[in-house]
Amino acid sequence: MFVSTDPVALLEAALDLLVAAEKDESFPQLRVGLAAGSAVSRAGDWFGSPVNVASRVTGLARPASVLVAESARDLIGDAGGYSWSFAGARHLKGVKGEVKLFRARRADD
């Protein structure tokens, strides 16, 4: 799990990590789920709704992809060279209502 106050930097790091993992055939294909919101750090771990959402979204992500919850997508906005596609809205365990999901790629991919 990665935590950052900057969702753009977090998305950039996730995309860089996917590229690095693809270059090393011994490394498994990664799945990334991003969410944003208030979380609490306690005893070296993180707790809260965005942690739960990110975990659930990661479980839905395809191998070698980044799936972003609407909470993070809204904060990232139109920042630097990303390509977005709507991946649907899903009910996630432990989360009220539907969560809209978006696939993120670099615009040049």
Descriptive account of the structure:
The protein has 109 residues and is α+β, with helices and mostly antiparallel strands. Helices cover 33% and strands 31% of the residues. The chain has three helices and six strands. It has helices spanning 7-23, 49-60, 70-76; strands at 31-34, 40-42, 45-47, 65-69, 82-91, 98-106. The longest helix is centred in the N-terminal third of the chain and has 17 residues, at 7-23.
Task: Offer a few descriptive terms.
6 strands; globular; alpha+beta; 31% strand; 3 helices; four-stranded mixed sheet
- Outline, from the CA principal axes? globular
Q: What's the number of extended β-strand segments?
A: 6
Residue share in β-strands = 25-35%
Mean pLDDT: 92
Strands across the major sheet, in which order? 1-4-6-5
Radius of gyration: 14 Å
Computed structural class: alpha+beta
Query: What share of residues is helical?
Result: 25-40%
Counting H and I runs of at least 4 residues, what is the number of helices?
3
Query: What is the CA-CA span between the terminal residues?
Result: 25 Å
Compose a concise summary of this entry:
The protein is an alpha+beta fold and 109 residues long.
Strand and helix map with partners:
Blueprint: H1 7-23, E1 31-34, E2 40-42, E3 45-47, H2 49-60, E4 65-69, H3 70-76, E5 82-91, E6 98-106
Parallel strand pairs: 1-4
Antiparallel strand pairs: 2-3, 4-6, 5-6
